[in-house]
Amino acid sequence: MGVEVAAPAVPLALPPSPTLPRKGGGSPPPVFEKTLQLALNGLMAGAVLAVPAIGLTMIYAVLRFVNFSVAAHMAVGAFAGYMLNAWLGLPAGIAILGAFICAGAAGIASDHVALRPLRGQSALTLAIASIAVNIMIESTIRFFFGGSPRDYAIPLRRDWHFGFLHVGPQQVENFIIASVAMAFLFLFLAFTMTGKAMRAVADNPMLADSKGIDPDRMARLAVGIGMGLAGIGGMLVGLDTSIDPLVGFRAILSVFAAAVVGGLGSVPGAVVGGLAIGLAEELSLLALPATYKSAVGFLAILAVLTLRPRGLLGARA
Amino acid sequence: MTNYLIAMATFGAIYAILALGLNVMWGMAGMVNLGIVGFYGFGAYVSALLTVKGHAPIALGFLAAMAGTAAMAALVTLGIMRLRDDYLAIVTLGFAEVVRIIAENEIWLTRGTDGISGIPQPLKSVLGSDFNAVYLVFCLVILAIVLFVLERVRTSPFGRVLRAIREDAQVAAFAGKDVLKFKVKAFALGGALAGLAGALYAHYSSFIVPEIYVPLLTIYIFLALTAGGIGNNWGAVVGAFVVVFILESTRFLKDVIPWVSAEQFAALREFLVGLGLLLVLFFRPRGLMPEPLPRLVER
């Protein structure tokens, strides 16, 4: 050693960013205004992030394993929505229902074929099997649609300006869709008999079983709704950027971070976690280049697991 | 054709060392590591940077790759030691992604996505066209040494404690074993092997880029170890060669189904890897060569 290290002077190619640049945007304002702007972006992105995080956490709450194939089901939803939107010309707000249904159906099917036979084995075995499922679904999408990015057929609209803040209409629409989806889920879990039964299974499977709640049916329902929400999340992420078969996988670290930070298994936790991770990722732009965004999620996971292993709102460690 | 076979065998040996490293962490000590590719990449970059930018001798690059990756692995363990399996899986997966993102973005150090080229190949000028064959022998010798050492480790008291921790960490702690110390050691040993495999690859191909170190490679190694037999060193080696053989033989499928594009074909191969992993979990969860357990602890 002791030899001087020659640093390459010119960065030849811009590195491909794991998070694609958002449409719109403006010139860099002063720090305070920039912070507020980033916080606003963070809340919007966080709400979108919360949707697949709820999906992950719901499946975990009922089935007790981390289902990595949430990433692939996000892609399923994104592409189902793409077909309805770009090919059939449906508006994004309606196509997203198709994203929910297709991803939910794919979730139930993949769980039934690939994961259900392994139930009873360790949570880790199931997690690894879900990784295999993830690869199979992602490569199937890649087989039919190719790997290059596609755009939804949505009109390019000018940002809305409020004083020094600006916000894209699509961002707002995504925020509303995410909020509506979450509202429906809360109504379902809080007021319907099935929703209550599902929470009972999550809380105490043995007791729920003795009350005559069919665990298989609840598992199917949790996977269907959970993966459906993942599908919505995938399409929302795609509306904000573009889609390709890895659209979910690129976001998965942030989704995991949201679920873990909020407390794996807690639905309100996933909402709080989503907002927290969205804010943290956007605010990190004050100090870090955009490409390090997903590293923020990782650091948040480490910090939370070290300081409060059951997450912000988690009940059990 | 001979060149092709030599290249495949070299990959087999490198993957086998990776699978052995994973076996120490996961198979012996029971700590799943979905970020093994991050350790592999870290080792490759340490050795490549030292020899290319620091003009250090290749042997020093290898040693530094092993020591550096071992230290990194120990450091990571301190952060994650108390985590449950599923958290461990998420955190290690994230670790590998962070390693790759850093390699992509710290252009001043790693040249980003352009990668590092001109990594010295040992004795290349002397061997000329014989380099590949000799390097294969070199890899196989190292693999044999690693296998020999790990078999000793497995049957040693150290290996026994690791198995005890894997089965029940609380009982091991109750028996007076410093569980954390053993876990850190196991992770460091596995990390050193992943770093060694990384250096072997870097000085073989002479060129590394961040995009080599994607999660799919971790899946290959998981497939190798689960197919071979978790906990069994020989299984890890056999599994690695089987996986490389299957991956490579699917290349020839291209002639059978010429109507698919290159992209579709790549997707098809990925699909088969996933399917393979799933089938192993279904039908052979303990692998082709199940872990040999001492007779006294028959379960």
Model description:
The complex is a heterodimer of chains A (317) and B (299). Chain A has a two-stranded antiparallel ribbon. In chain A, α5 packs across α6. Chain A is globular and about 60 Å long. Chain A is an all-alpha fold. Chain A has eleven helices and two strands; from the N terminus they run ααααββααααααα. The termini of chain B are far apart. By secondary structure, chain B is mainly alpha-helical. The longest helix of chain B has 27 residues, at 2-28. Chain B is globular, with a radius of gyration of 19 Å. The mean pLDDT of chain B is 88. Chain B is built from 14 helices and two strands. Chain B has helices at 2-28, 36-52, 58-80, 85-105, 107-110, 124-127, 131-155, 157-167, 169-174, 179-205, 215-228, 233-249, 253-256, 262-283; strands spanning 116-117, 207-208. Chains A and B meet through α4, α9 and α11 of A and α4, α5, α11 and α14 of B.
Quick synopsis:
By secondary structure, chain A is mainly alpha-helical. Chain A contains 11 helices and 2 strands. At the A-B interface, α4, α9 and α11 of A face α4, α5, α11 and α14 of B.
Topology:
The complex is a heterodimer of chains A (317) and B (299).
Chain A: H1 31-63, H2 70-87, H3 92-115, H4 123-145, E1 160-162, E2 165-167, H5 169-191, H6 193-203, H7 205-210, H8 215-240, H9 247-262, H10 267-283, H11 293-307
Helix pairs in contact in A: 1-5, 1-6, 1-8, 1-9, 1-10, 2-3, 2-4, 2-8, 2-9, 3-8, 5-6, 5-8, 6-8, 9-10, 9-11, 10-11
Chain B: H1 2-28, H2 36-52, H3 58-80, H4 85-105, H5 107-110, E1 116-117, H6 124-127, H7 131-155, H8 157-167, H9 169-174, H10 179-205, E2 207-208, H11 215-228, H12 233-249, H13 253-256, H14 262-283
Antiparallel strand pairs in B: 1-2
Helix pairs in contact in B: 1-7, 1-10, 1-11, 1-12, 2-3, 2-4, 2-10, 3-10, 7-8, 8-10, 11-12, 11-14
